[in-house]
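// run 5 | inverse folding | seed 20
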């Protein structure tokens, strides 16, 4: 019987603090020897190897605003365009409250569509189109059909979990770079992070470039300043695609404060990333969006409880983290697509879908794995 390091149930994982201490993580037993697990019954080390804490959740036909917004985001991510329009209609009719005015609700929805164009796609013209219309989408007097049209535009192209987009490389490099540069922080100041980012881009090291960008955020450099710094490099290299991406971010810097999807893709492009869908955009007829809104209206006559997979326990109450947009889970979604040819939640997510690449494992365990394989 052959084993790989990824499939071993016990992992001696180095502490993220850089202390040199190693903890034993038991995937099958769902335990860890770290202090956080001993006191709380769960820990970040288990999260990093895809072992999440189970949570109770009761789906309802009329969920909270955050759950419905999560439903919109996940529907776009999974390219379920009819579901996306269904939740768009619900969000648009959500009653105003002291905590959330109608104007604030529309802004949040429009913002998520803009972010989704980059978080769930690699087409720069699609991102630019949504960005050009963003201010209009935020206005309450803008008919809902225009927001629906932008959702359709995003969903017409395949997402990162499909290998034809080049997204597998982007997700994998993002995951490894984040783990190497943020979880195990070797640099703790902005100057060191800037230098690391510049060097990685010029060396075409995509993992380190994205990890260094995340590190800038970890040391307190906001997304606007990250975009401005990346822009200087993009202009030095005369990198047209990266410049366009960064212009999208900087053009909506207030709405995108705290978001790194456009900057992350720019760093990947600058370090040699390639996507076959980068310049593709499909036409959208307003009649398509109108028809989808009519279907959604009919569905709302007999609503069903929000699916579990739309409520992730990270961005809203729920229990299914698989589509939450966390890097570890995003790579697992890519692996699920390879395994099953789709990313439907009915499929079993296998332990080997969650990689340990980029984590620091005790050398002794790696030797054991190699010996077992021989």
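// decoded
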């Amino acid at each position: 019987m052959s084993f790989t390091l990824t499939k071993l149930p016990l992992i001696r994982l180095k502490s993220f603090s850089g202390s040199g201490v190693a903890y034993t993580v038991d995937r099958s037993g769902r335990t860890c020897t770290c202090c956080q697990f001993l006191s709380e019954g769960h820990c970040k080390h288990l999260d990093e190897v895809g072992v999440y804490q189970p949570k109770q959740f009761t789906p309802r036909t009329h969920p909270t605003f955050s759950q419905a917004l999560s439903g919109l985001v996940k529907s776009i991510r999974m390219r379920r365009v009819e579901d996306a329009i269904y939740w768009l209609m619900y969000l648009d009719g959500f009653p105003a409250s002291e905590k959330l005015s109608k104007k604030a609700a529309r802004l949040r929805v429009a913002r998520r569509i803009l972010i989704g164009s980059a978080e769930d796609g690699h087409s720069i013209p699609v991102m630019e189109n949504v960005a050009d219309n963003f201010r209009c989408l935020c206005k309450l007097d803008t008919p809902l059909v225009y927001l629906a049209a932008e959702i359709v535009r995003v969903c017409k192209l395949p997402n990162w979990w499909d290998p034809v987009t080049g997204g597998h490389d982007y997700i994998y490099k993002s995951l490894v770079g984040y783990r190497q540069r943020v979880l195990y922080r070797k640099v703790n100041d902005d100057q060191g992070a800037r230098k690391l980012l510049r060097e990685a881009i010029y060396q075409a090291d995509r993992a380190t470039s994205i990890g260094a960008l995340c590190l800038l955020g970890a040391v307190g450099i906001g997304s606007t300043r990250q975009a401005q710094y990346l822009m200087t490099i993009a202009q030095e290299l005369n990198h047209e695609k990266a410049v366009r991406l960064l212009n999208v971010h900087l053009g909506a810097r207030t709405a995108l404060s705290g978001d790194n999807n456009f900057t992350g893709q720019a760093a990947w492009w600058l370090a040699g990333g390639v996507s076959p869908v980068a310049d593709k955009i499909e036409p959208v007829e307003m009649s398509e969006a109108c028809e989808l809104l009519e279907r959604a209206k009919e569905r709302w006559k007999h609503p069903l409880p929000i699916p579990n997979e739309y409520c992730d326990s990270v961005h809203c109450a729920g229990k299914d983290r698989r589509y939450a947009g966390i890097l570890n889970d995003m790579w697992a979604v890519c692996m699920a697509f390879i395994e099953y040819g789709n990313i439907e939640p009915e499929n079993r997510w296998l332990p080997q879908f969650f990689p340990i690449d980029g984590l620091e494992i005790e050398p002794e365990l790696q030797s054991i794995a190699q010996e077992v394989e021989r």
